[in-house]
Amino acid sequence: xxxxxxxxxxxxxxxxxxxxxxxxxxxxxxxxxxxxxxxxxxxxxxxxxxxxxxxxxxxxxxxxxxxxxxxxxxxxxxxxxxxxxxxxxxxxxxxxxxxxxxxxxxxxxxxxxxxxxxxxxxxxxxxxxxxxxxxxxxxxxxxxxxxxxxxxxxxxxxxxxxxxxxxxxxxxxxxxxxxxxxxxxxx
Length: 187
Known about the structure:
single chain, alpha+beta, Pnp Oxidase, Chain A, eight-stranded antiparallel beta sheet, 5 helices, 8 strands, globular
């Protein structure tokens, strides 16, 4: 039987720290629009305290999570044990987008090691309202071989100027037309 908490227990924190991948789900308000589900990796998440996690939001071809958070703030993170005992942990809460111009960005960015230049476009802060676990008996076993280097290499090869242009083109609004990165929409 799964357990439900209103904070991240020490057991949840330890479990989350051992996972190499997690999944992020968001949706726009209303009945229209696309639900988004994204895998995340690259050692990009940190537990700040018993109610807060932050993760690095890398440059991508879409900006759905950011747009949905700006629209309504709802977010769910899911962690699955692909190695060891079966377990799933879900964090439900309110998400907040911290772009590089946000005064809180540098403090949270310092929680992470170096990344390739330009790869991080924002930090997502999740204020946890509900943490729960379930058995994970149906999750297959996989072995972690390592992180992929392509994203950082791609951003580094593009260089700062082309990366800005890419984000202005692909990250200013979502596939449903919702606002994405603030700076990418500025003239």
